[in-house]
Fold these 2 entries.
Entry 1:
Amino acid sequence: MRPAGKDLRANFYYRIAPGEWKLVGTSEFELVPEGHVGLVCSRSGLALKGVIVLNAPGIVDEDYRGEIKVILMNVGEDTYLVEEGERIAQLVLTPCLPWDLAGERGEGGFGSTGRI
């Protein structure tokens, strides 16, 4: 038996106050194979504590080359301390039909289209 998703772990310590969100690095790169899309999903144990992936599921395209980062939000009542190496999200792979789009992706991520 295999898990449905790969655990993504925090690359540093983070403090997230109630109502706050943080962009948390994972030190993971190029995890999505050709013909697939990665879906960044909340972990049930963290969600029970009030910490969720804000844009779940986050999308990681097969041609994304930068560090996979996770937007965590604390919707709970207490400050949450993310430990370095803590499992913060899961990356689930699913097959994806390609779009015929011109241009190439780089390492920008989060707003790299210039709209933010």
Entry 2:
Amino acid sequence: MLTTTRARRKPVSPAFKLAKLCAAAALDKKADAVLVLDLRELSSVADFFVIVSGTSEPHLKAIADEIEKQTIAFGDKPRAVDGFPASHWIVMDFTDVIVHIFHPKVREHYALENLWGDAPKVKV
């Protein structure tokens, strides 16, 4: 008798679900260049970074507001929010997930994608 075994999938962590939710919320507000980095094997800072771009101060605020609204509905909320639209960078700290909302020039300057270049990218 021939039997086959199925590869077991790793359980999806709450942090993974939250990172995907944050990315989807940003996309709902037309964020650009949405990227989720899996840092679990690389850092103790967070499990995931979500990095997105917005085109203007109102756009950055709208993205942050939508992420907060959807994560509260999910049963979570940011532990801290730092920055503001005029700074062109908003950071939302969910402990295991950190969301960076950048104006493109600021995103290019800090280049988090390069700093964490070894991190696997999560399909959004």
